């Protein structure tokens, strides 16, 4: 077994059967991190206790004890998610020295399933961005071509998986931040239904939109990880009291009679020609597999980006107000020049700690929530959000899943959109609707552009219909049989 290119399920089985030790698996991935991270910058922090944890797992297995479904599998965790004893910064100077005294519920569940947390991955600061260029710890680079962005905000997680530094990673998706980097890096990424995975211990960006989910090399692996991190959590009032199915054991590759909707708004003129070709190829595969394809209309999707940025920035303005340099967070040095008043204290501490994009979103959100503008902006956006949700609910009465692009184009070059925030925001045109409506969405590798950069296909389903996404994704994965790896492997 080639450890660095093996699937999660292959690694776990080999560790449980003692064909390979958990320590060997962890050391192989740590060596790959040491080799690739200086150039790709996928990780902010490495868990130096990973080898010790792997050894303890090997001892359990040697004693015949249960090792768990993720036995010995190294998992990278986005730095937006708290890990007890491991620095968690949200890629911000504001939390540069924060070591959580507790772990997020999903991290505890991974460890209970036998996974080894190998490190914390780079991201856009406080998950605000679409390219992992806003990180206070330097930008991450796409392993397929280091001149290109890996997407964002979970770009480091995508790089870790695509670059062989971890067979699985956890990202967070507020407006497409799992699916978009998965598409850019040629891996599988799923945003589950809102509430499916506990948000306890996930540093909040926009609380009604944030959702954590797995990023892996295969659909089966994504299903296995999601099974092990989902479920009701008393610590999170928004977690859903829903049964967690055995998705990985219920994969059904028969799509005969499955109704696939093709939203005509997804195939508008702004869709790039190479992306369009990949999506049309996926449509042909589903048609040949017996699926029934029909065109539908979701007219309010054209409003998804402005609605998303009003809702997200408003919630961010509220959530990030806690970082004031008093209770916790970065505090400016006032020893040589004391602050004249509390306003200056806040201004200097927050001004030095937050990056440009975070400041921009706080200002936008504060404006949208201010008296005199709340009714015109935040309230109206919330009303349109409900109408958008109603349109998707109606659409899923006519079809079982929706198919379309993840983004308009493949990954773009580093720096080419960072000076134009509006153009960067429009990159989220196909992904934000799933967060606004709470439905699940998955990105599956669909092909490559002429320059060799990956292009993903997006499948959306009704609330708590993740099984359908895995089923359709497995069919596309098998038919396309994309076995290429970036040259770092």
Structure summary:
This protein has 489 residues and is of the alpha/beta class. It is 37% helix and 13% strand. The radius of gyration is 22 Å and the shape is globular.
What does this structure look like?
The protein has 489 residues and is an alpha/beta fold. Helix content is 37%, strand content 13%. The protein has 15 helices and 11 strands. Strands 1-3-2-4-6-5-10-11-9-7-8 form an 11-stranded mixed sheet, sandwiched between helices. Helix 8 links the parallel strand 7 and strand 8. Helix 2 runs antiparallel to helix 3, helix 9 packs across helix 11 and helix 9 crosses helix 12.
Q: What is this structure's SSE topology?
A:
Layout: H1 8-16, H2 22-40, E1 43-46, H3 50-62, E2 74-78, H4 105-112, E3 116-121, H5 155-162, E4 168-173, H6 179-185, E5 188-191, E6 211-216, H7 219-229, E7 259-263, H8 273-288, E8 292-296, H9 304-319, H10 342-353, H11 356-369, H12 375-398, E9 401-405, H13 421-425, H14 432-437, E10 441-448, E11 454-461, H15 466-480
Parallel strand pairs: 2-3, 2-4, 7-8, 7-9
Antiparallel strand pairs: 1-3, 4-6, 5-6, 5-10, 9-11, 10-11
Helix pairs in contact: 2-3, 5-6, 7-15, 9-11, 9-12
């Amino acid at each position: 077994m080639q450890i660095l290119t093996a699937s999660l399920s292959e690694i776990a089985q080999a560790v449980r059967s003692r064909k390979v030790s958990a320590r060997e698996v962890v050391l192989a991935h740590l060596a790959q991190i040491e080799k690739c991270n200086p150039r790709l910058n996928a990780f902010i922090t490495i868990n130096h206790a990973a080898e010790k944890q792997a050894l303890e797992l090997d001892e359990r297995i040697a004693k015949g004890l249960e090792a768990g479904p993720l036995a010995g599998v190294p998992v990278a965790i986005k730095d937006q998610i708290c890990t007890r004893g491991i620095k968690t910064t949200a890629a911000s100077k504001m939390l540069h020295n924060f070591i959580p005294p507790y772990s997020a519920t999903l991290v505890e569940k991974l460890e209970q399933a036998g996974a080894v947390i190998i490190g914390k991955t780079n991201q856009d600061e406080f998950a605000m961005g679409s390219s992992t260029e806003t990180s206070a710890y330097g930008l991450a680079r796409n392993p397929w071509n280091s001149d290109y962005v890996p997407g964002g905000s979970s770009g480091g997680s995508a790089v870790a998986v695509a670059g062989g530094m971890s067979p699985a990673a956890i990202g967070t998706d507020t407006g497409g931040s799992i699916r978009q980097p998965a598409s850019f890096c040629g891996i599988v990424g799923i945003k589950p239904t809102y509430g499916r995975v506990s948000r306890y211990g996930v540093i909040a960006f926009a609380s009604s939109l944030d959702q954590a989910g797995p990023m892996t090399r295969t659909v089966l692996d994504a299903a296995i990880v999601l099974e092990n991190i989902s479920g009701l959590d008393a610590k999170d009032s928004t977690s859903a009291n829903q049964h967690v199915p055995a998705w990985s054991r219920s994969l059904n590759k028969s799509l005969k009679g499955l109704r696939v909707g093709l939203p005509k708004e997804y195939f508008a003129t702004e869709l790039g020609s190479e992306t369009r070709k990949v999506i049309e190829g996926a449509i042909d595969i589903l048609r040949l597999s017996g699926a029934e394809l029909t065109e539908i209309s979701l007219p309010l999707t054209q409003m998804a980006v402005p609605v998303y940025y009003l809702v997200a920035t408003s919630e961010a303005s509220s959530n990030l107000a806690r970082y004031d340099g008093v209770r916790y967070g970065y505090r400016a040095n006032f020893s040589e020049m004391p602050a004249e008043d509390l306003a200056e204290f806040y201004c200097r501490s927050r001004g030095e700690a937050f990056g440009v994009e975070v400041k921009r979103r706080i200002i936008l959100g504060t404006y949208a929530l201010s008296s005199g503008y709340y009714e015109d902006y935040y309230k109206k956006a919330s009303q349109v959000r409900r109408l958008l949700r109603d349109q998707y609910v109606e659409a899923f009465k006519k079809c079982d899943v929706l198919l379309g692009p993840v983004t308009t184009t493949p990954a773009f070059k580093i720096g080419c959109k960072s000076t134009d925030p509006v153009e960067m925001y429009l990159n989220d045109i196909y992904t934000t609707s799933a967060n606004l409506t709470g439905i699940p969405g998955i990105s599956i590798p669909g092909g490559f552009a002429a320059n060799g950069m990956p292009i993903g296909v997006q499948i959306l389903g009704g609330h708590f219909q993740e099984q359908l996404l895995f089923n359709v994704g497995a069919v596309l994965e098998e038919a396309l049989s994309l076995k290429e790896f970036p040259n770092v492997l």
